[in-house]
Structures are given as C-alpha cells and as structure tokens.
Design a protein that fits this description.
single chain; alpha+beta; four-stranded antiparallel β-sheet; 16 helices
Length: 559
C-alpha cells in the first residue's frame, strides 16, 4: 500500500496467496447477527507485505504507520475531519486553542485526567516536549513547521512561529503527543526503534509478528472505553490476498484498490460489504521530470495533458470508483475545491483534444513525421513511464497514457519497477515520468506547494525530497506560495492562489488525472457505526488519524 496515498497521504494498489497467519480472521470474533454473543475483535488488513517491528509513530516507514495502528496508541491534540478540513476540529487532548497575530501564536489548554498506557499522567509538559522534540529534530518535523518559542505553565502550552501558519494550522493542531519520560531516553528519536509504545490512546500492544500485530484494550481511558476489545492488524502480501480476505470475511476493514470491486467484494455479501471512497484536496497524476529534454518545454507537457484520456483512466484503471477523475484544468478536485477555482478557469474542463495538442507542438517547433514526433533539434521524442509492478491501478494508467501519447507521435515504454528502486528514482530525480500522488490539505495550497515549491527543490541526484519530484523550478510559483501562506487577508490569498492556478495551467509540471480518496472497504456483519455518505464524521481509511474516532464509534452488530 502506498503510504502517501493513504497519506500519506496519502496514500493504493501497492504492494498470491494470503499468509497462513491471516486465515484466522473470524476465529475469535463471535457475532450477534448469527445468534452468538456480541463481537469483540475487529480484523484490519493492509496489502503491505511482511513488516519489521517498529512502533515509532513518527516514521512513515514503521509498521505502526504502514498498518495504521499507531493512531490507536498515540492521540492528537485536536481531531480534524480529513474530508471536511475547513470545519472546526474536535477537542481531544487539547480542550481549547486560540490563534493570534496572523497565525504566528497559538495557545493550547491541555485536558486534565489523561494517563499514558503505563499509568503515568499526561501533562502539559508532555505536550510542550512533543513540540520541542519536533523543533529539535528536523527528521520529526515532517511539515517543516517554523517553531519559535515553546513554553508551558500549568495546563497551558504557548507556541510562537517565525511566520504565519495559516496553511499549517490543522497540521499543528493534529500533532500527536508522546511521553517525555520515555522519549527523553532515546539517543536518536529520528531513527530509534520503539518496541514498547506508550501513548494516551485506548489500546496497547499485545503481540507482533511480521504478518500480524495485535492491540488489546487498556483498563482505563479518559473517554468511554471502545466496544472493540481487540484489534488485529494483518499485513497481506499484495492486493489480491487482501481482496480475498475481505471477500471471505477474514479481513473487515482495509484501504486497497480492487478492480471489479462489485463482483469480487460487494456482491459476496451485498448487505454487509461496503465501499466508501470520499475525496479530499489531494491529487494523483503523471509527474514529469522537468529537467529532462525535451520535457523541460511546457508546450510538450501541455500537449501531453491534452491527449490523456481521464475517463479511461477512471473507468479502467480506477474501477470507476477509486480516484475520481480531475475535471478542472487547474488540477483542483471538484466539488471539494470548487470554491477555490479562479474565475478565468471556472468553466474550463479537461477534454481530449488531439488536434489542439498537435497545434501546440507545431507552434513550439516540434514536427510530426509519420507516427514519430521530433523535438526542435530533430530528435525523436521518447519517454519511459515508471511505477512499481504491484501497483495495478497505476500500471493500468500508464498503459492508457502510453496509447494516448502515441496519438501525437510520442513513443512511450513502461518500466514496471522494483518498489524500492522506484522510490529511490523518484527521490533522486532519476526518471522520465510516472504516476504519483500529492499532499492534501484544507485548501489547494498543499497540492500546489507539493508540486511547485522552490523551497523544497533539490538538484537531480540529491535525495530526501518532500515533494517537487519533477524538479519544477519556478520562482514565480515559489513567490505566490509564500504570498498565500503569509497573507493577512482573504483577498491576498485569493490573488496568490489564482496565480498558482495560472502557472499550473500554462506550465503543467504534472498532468493531473484523479482526485485522492481517503476511503475504505469494510464489513457491517460484526460491527456497525462506520462513516458513510450519510454520516461523514470521519474519512474511512484505517491508516488515517481519524481511524481512532471510527473505532470509538463502532458497536457490535445487533447489540
């Protein structure tokens, strides 16, 4: 499973038989609907392959992040609804919060009566330490928050920032809290393996194997204890194994791409097998390495955009449900981002336009000779499209894009890469083009920042990037991002965002194809209370922070 597509973000179709340890899905999960006692166990699955034990909640590569169980142990200050990020958050470990001075100051009131799973009290000092830990360790400060001062007095924590945090306010409020008495003993919190996780959440670690992690309910918790007594997280080898487990009931909750989802999952138990895939303000698309000729020419990128068939990608690659197609030429998902689209682009939608693409290329000095496109220097235009072999929806997307590009004479080949090699290639800029995701947030800023920000631009060959994988270099875009982030009024923000949309349309650093979703496949046979279209209290994805909110809302079916 791709972390950012469940992120992260994020972050699907990643990684054929199910693992032997995964076959006990319903063994100890008696159900009221079949006349037995109420269910006590919830089986969660992800198609991420064997895991290495590490419960470090900061590391996106840890088993806790990969399977999602870190959120059952570590809790946020404020619970933000990932599909309605502009709504006020729900008080969690913080009961109150107040921003001041154009989002450069934040005052938090910390909840009393909360204990960690080792029985020690959680205090405002732990909260202040959790922020200080991020400030002092760049690797833990994944959103590059510019922390200033961090002070604590009584149950209050006050923070300052060196610039406005309007665009990061939800990320800061959603920070999870770790115990100072444990984390202060670690030599390198960026890398240390956490074998005994201690958090304020309702669950604690019971057992771990590379295939399965089990959490058990704590004896006490600051909220009402959840009805789910035990959580069993299974990591299946691939999408097929995960899908089989969902179909036969061994797995009750997952985020996985399933081709023919109605046939292979929903129709197996129409009453109980549910799919809900709400979109957020994040996108998927064809990232183009803008440092490689002739793809450094925006006319070529615009022409590629004009011939890519998003309907085919949605229906064939995304099974008609998973990543809704991007309609707006700005790349902003609708309807979620409708209100942000600039007036000049309100009615401009993506449509296949081969003739328009050819005219675009001809005006830029490209020549179509027979079925071969030649760049202004006379060299045939070829491109290698790459994604990991197991990411079936992305690979199908690439097959469609390959055919689409042939209509304007671009010869494309597909590299079904080793996953680790692919991550390294994208990280270091060693690729032509490939499907990838962007960050998401409360506004389209996060999308554009992830694609175009010069502040995270690194030269080809240098890894450790947090975005701008296509190495897009636009001082104008970087300036507009700064203006948006530091604006003191809505008018200035709107003007900056309109500039970013214009750059996106004219420069096309990536070709957007679909909107991200933060959904899930789940079963109501044993558990009810899931979020859905009628009750959108949280995104359904089990690797999101809101997963804790969902588990707290579940009740045994028929109880």
């Amino acid at each position: 499973m791709r972390a950012r597509r469940s992120v992260a973000l994020a972050l699907t179709g990643l990684l054929a038989a199910a693992l032997a340890a995964c076959s006990n899905g319903d063994t100890n999960n008696s159900t009221a609907s079949s006349g037995g006692t109420a269910a006590t166990v919830l089986n969660v699955g992800m198609p991420n392959g064997p895991q290495t034990e590490n419960h470090n909640p900061f590391l996106g590569s840890s088993s806790g992040a990969s399977l999602g169980y870190r959120w059952m142990i570590y809790e946020p200050l404020v619970m933000i609804n990932g599909i309605k990020p502009q709504e006020p958050g729900k008080p969690w470990l913080a009961t109150e919060w107040k921003w001041a001075d154009n989002f450069t100051k934040l005052s938090l009131t910390i909840r009393d009566g909360v204990t960690f799973s080792d029985g020690k009290p959680m205090t405002a000092a732990d909260v202040a330490y959790s922020f200080q830990l991020r400030k002092d360790n760049e690797g833990l400060n994944q959103d590059a928050i510019p922390y200033g001062t961090i002070t604590q007095s009584g149950n209050k924590v006050d923070l300052t920032f060196t610039r406005s945090q309007f665009v990061n306010q939800n990320k800061i409020l959603a920070v999870f809290v770790v115990p100072k008495h444990q984390w202060s003993t670690f030599k390198d919190p960026n890398q240390d393996t956490v074998k005994q996780p201690i958090g304020t959440g309702p669950y604690k670690l019971k057992s771990f194997t590379p295939q399965s992690t089990t959490l058990e309910l704590r004896g006490e918790y600051w909220q009402e204890l959840p009805k789910v007594k035990e959580l069993r997280y299974t990591s299946y080898n691939d999408n097929n194994a995960q899908t089989t487990a969902l179909a036969n009931g061994a797995s009750e909750w997952s985020f996985v791409f399933v081709p023919n989802v109605k046939t292979v999952f929903q129709n197996k138990d129409p009453e109980n097998h549910k799919v809900w895939a709400p979109a957020n303000l994040g996108i998927h698309g064809l990232w183009i390495n803008t440092t490689r000729k002739p793809f450094d020419n925006p006319a070529l990128r615009r022409a590629m955009d004009k011939v890519i068939n998003r309907d085919d990608i949605f229906q064939q690659a995304e099974a008609g449900y998973f990543y809704p197609k991007i309609e707006s030429v700005t790349g902003i998902p609708t309807p979620a981002g409708e209100s942000f689209i600039a007036p000049e682009f309100k009615d401009k939608l993506h449509a296949v336009d081969v003739d328009g693409a050819k005219a675009e290329l001809a005006a830029a000095g490209f020549k179509l000779e027979g079925d071969t496109l030649k760049d202004p220097s006379g060299k045939p235009v070829t491109i290698t499209l790459t994604d990991p072999a197991g990411w079936s929806d992305y690979i199908t997307s690439l097959e469609i894009i390959k055919d689409n590009l042939s209509t304007i004479g671009i010869k494309a080949s597909i590299d079904k890469a080793n996953q680790d090699a692919w991550f390294k290639a994208f990280d270091e800029g060693d690729f032509d083009a490939g499907m990838h995701w962007t960050n998401g947030g409360a506004t389209p800023y996060d999308i554009y920042q992830n694609i175009m920000d010069g502040k995270i631009l690194k030269p080809v060959g240098k890894g450790g990037v947090s975005g701008n994988y296509g190495r897009f270099n636009s001082p104008e875009a970087t300036k507009a991002l700064d203006q948006y982030a530091n604006a003191t009024d809505d008018a200035a923000r709107t003007a900056a965002l309109n500039t970013l949309q214009k750059i996106m349309v004219e420069q096309m650093p990536i070709v957007p194809t679909g909107a991200s979703n933060i959904g899930a496949l789940y079963s109501t046979k044993n558990w009810v209370g899931w979020p859905d279209e009628q009750n959108q209290y949280a995104p359904a994805q089990p690797t999101q922070q809101n997963a804790l909110q969902i588990v707290l809302s579940l009740k045994p079916a028929g109880a």
